[in-house]
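Practice set, problem 2.
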Amino acid sequence: QVQLAESGGGLVQAGDSLRLSCAASGRTLSTYVMGWFRQTPGHERELVSRINWSGGNTYYADSVKGRFTISRDNAKNTMYLQMNSLKPEDTAVYSCAAGINGYGYKYWGQGTQVTVSS
């Protein structure tokens, strides 16, 4: 059974930085596409960023381009999201997910709260 565990969330002020981690256990996810999603109450879950198995192909939502950086360390079975210049509108529960390219995301973490105060 694959488990994804996020960490690194917290309460910060606007302009601060946070680094989220997503650690996988149960099997190696080195060939999986992995992504970070976020959700706020009353809104649909939003894809924030995505990274392919090698890290050579990434995607960012327009709202975070230039501020967030996704990366992964397949040796550690871990994915990261470096979030800089945080804004109050970045406040959300951030979840990580993993899946096979073209088949959707199969595994999901429980999420970590990120709160950015103005």
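Problem 2, part (b): a different protein.
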Amino acid sequence: QVHLVESGGGLVQAGGSLRLSCVASGRTLSSNTMGWFRQAPGKEREFVARIGRSGDLLYGLSSVQGRFTISRNNAKNTIYLQMNSLRPEDTATYYCAATERSVWTYWGQGTQVTVSS
């Protein structure tokens, strides 16, 4: 069974940076697309970014382009989300996910990111 565990969240001032990590266990996910979603209180979960098996990238939010960078280390079965120039509106719980046959199937428990103004 696949488990995803996020880390790296916390409280940061606006303009600051955080680096989220997501470690997968259970089996290697090097052939799976993996990504990040986020959900703010009272809002729906939204797609942030994903990275394919070959390193192809897609960012789902125009507001994060140029500030967030997704990457992966297949040897460590880990993906990352480097978040720079953080804004209060980036405050949310960030979830790591992985696909199975192109469906977002595996989810982590989430890590809280709070950006103060």
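Answer key, part (b): The chain is about 0% helix and 55% strand. The radius of gyration is 13 Å.
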